[in-house]
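Hi support team,

I submitted a single chain yesterday and got back a structure, but I'm not sure I'm reading the token output correctly. Could someone confirm the output below corresponds to the sequence I sent? I've pasted both exactly as they appear in my results page.

Thanks,
R.
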Amino acid sequence: MRQGVAVSFFAEFCLTVGNKLMGSVGANALTYVARALRKRMPSSLNIIRLERTYLRRVAKEVEKMPVIYRGIELNTRTEYVEASLNTLTEAADSLRLPRRGHDATKLRNHEVNRARRIVWLGEAGIGKTTLLRKTVLEIASRQISEESLIKQDGLIPIYVPLKAVSVSHPAPVLYYILNSIDYFRGYWGKRRLLRLARSQRLAIFLDGYDEIPYIDKARLIESELGILLSNHLFLDTWLSPSRDYGEIQRAMQTCRIWMTSRKEFFFAHRVSLSKASCFEVCGLSSNGAELIRKILIYYQKKIKREGGKPLDEGAFLSSLHTGIKIGLADLSNNPLFLTILAYAIFEAMRNGEEVSKVWRHGQGGIISACANQLLLDMDKEKFEPISSIDRFRLVNNRARWAHQKLLIVRRIAWCGYERGIAIYNSADIERVARELVNDAKGMQDRDDILRGMGSDDFSVNVVAQICYSGILVGVLNSEREVVYDFIHRRFRESLATQCVLEDVGIERLCELIHIPSMSELGMVVAREEGRWYQVSLAVMEKIFVLDKERQEYWHVSALLAGLFQLPTDLLDKRLLFRQLLEKCFDRSVYPVLDHRLLSFLNIQTCPGVREFILTAINAAAQHSDYAKLGFCLPILLTIDPIEHEAQIERLLESCNKLNDFARSVMTAASTKATEHRVAVERLLARAFKEGFTPNDPITLATINLFLRKPGGGRIIEWDLSGVINLLQKNEIASSTIIETVISFQEQVNNLPDEESGGGSARNRLLGSRFPLDGNWREAADK
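Hi R., thanks for writing in. Yes, this is the structure output for that exact sequence:
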């Protein structure tokens, strides 16, 4: 055994020296010796060597911080601040944790360590990725401590940036692991992955659920994540292209799995979490001063290296605190924001510019100023993969065409939303740059910029200069190609917003608002640029032109509901909602409104809307307009669920065909909790027996009642298994059940955060809590 260890060390030594002397005769000889010695090593030593090599590579990769942080002593190993954590939801393995104090930290760490599967949620830039990277580094470097969130020894970490996975593959995460990570490639790599998963030695870190590319096949990754984060394997028959994939997924369910996401994105695109806990990353808390201190030290060292005038620390700190106070206090616990703000202030002070202009235009202006400085402030830390000659050319020409490059970067951000892509290859970036420069007839040096694109001379190639500026970062995708993404999601949002306002125009955004990726950008523009009414009006118009059967319809419906939940002027909300109702009645088109859209309605805020709806219900009852009746009934119950029940029942008495049925609806809405559920179940069964179709407005209104607490008008969790069991008892055909549930499921996905069961329609159908008989499974597969 000792001899084998000696052989192993000598082989590693030969290989290391050979790599350093690459190209020489001696290097080739040493490499040959190392390979020969490896063949004579015991298999157990080979396994240990491969494992150690993999761990070293993982540690080296995750220790790198984005360019904006580099040099500030903010490497991942020391984790520049401790993020405050809080339990977001009551899950099976969670407690509501206190946020401060030594004992609170120990209790929090204990609960996190005990949970096998965790979803970390938080705002952009709050520290979710850094939390994952630090944990990966502790595991890979075998430096587990009392403060570590995972205290299990001997784990093998797998870090997966979800933005780089191939969402068109049936099992995107598994495909990325088996193709992009050398340790798990090939036949033996796949066996190694299965062996480690079965022995529960894997710790899988899925970073950036909200950064998955926007295409229809993204549902595949939602399904796979649902499998990994829960115990459901009902999807195994159609998700996995081979038996081996299902076997690995089943084994992975026993391992530790962490995933990060923006909170609002996760609630809009839920995955099954039957055995996972949710924690919120709350930001710097009281540790912001420590980050500011390290930033200040870094800038003082940087000025000293450059031989410049020392930084006035008092003026710098004063400007930083002033920027935080003036409309930016809500972002002061965000490490990314603090770093960007300090960077922009430092550059303004060094260049003798007015510091107040940094925060004059809010968060978007700060990020735009930071992006502009990154294009000019090129240093050696940005050019690790390229030669010294190319590095010299980039640094020497960094100030050339600065404004043109900023315009190109903004257009790149916009095109990501327009085309529904989250990452770009170099060809994408060059194509966007050429399109912009070709269209900009009056751009200065236009011909020189076009000629330089694609050139090997980096001094004239603006695409290369942008790629190595620090605004974009490179990552390997599932096909092992280098692709680029923005340094952070906030950069992409802010730069795309600036492109909308100053280049392509908000009209173009409104025209494409039905595209899921543009819906997200529309929300940002409405929230941060004061364009709520303009964006909301465009979204409302889309509701009337899109087919309810199309996926875009539900995206637009959810977007309109999200816009109504933004803290904006209540008068604007009343005006727009009144316009929505008038258009519905004028065109006799009654869209399915997201429940959250009605959440702002009540007697105090919308008295005029209540009277308007009562008049419409009266007219619908007189003319037996059942579609209009089904549309208005939930709205009135939301505004005033108790006072008008008797009045509504009297108005409905003039309906001939639905007299008894409508009276039963009102009775079910006013009964006690247990009786309410039973009454609505009877009502739903009766609806099908009387021949109502699944998409009939009255049927949908009835399921709406099934989701509401009696008398309160509030939505409760969608009990899918209860509805299906109910319909099966009444001998409703399986195909009809599927059609009914799916037709209503998209509304259920958009329930309020604290009340929704969540999940995509197919996930909830096949992953719900009931046994699947043969007829049901056959119908679902069809």
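A quick pointer for reading it: The first strand starts at residue 84 and ends at 87. Let us know if anything else looks off.

Best,
Support desk
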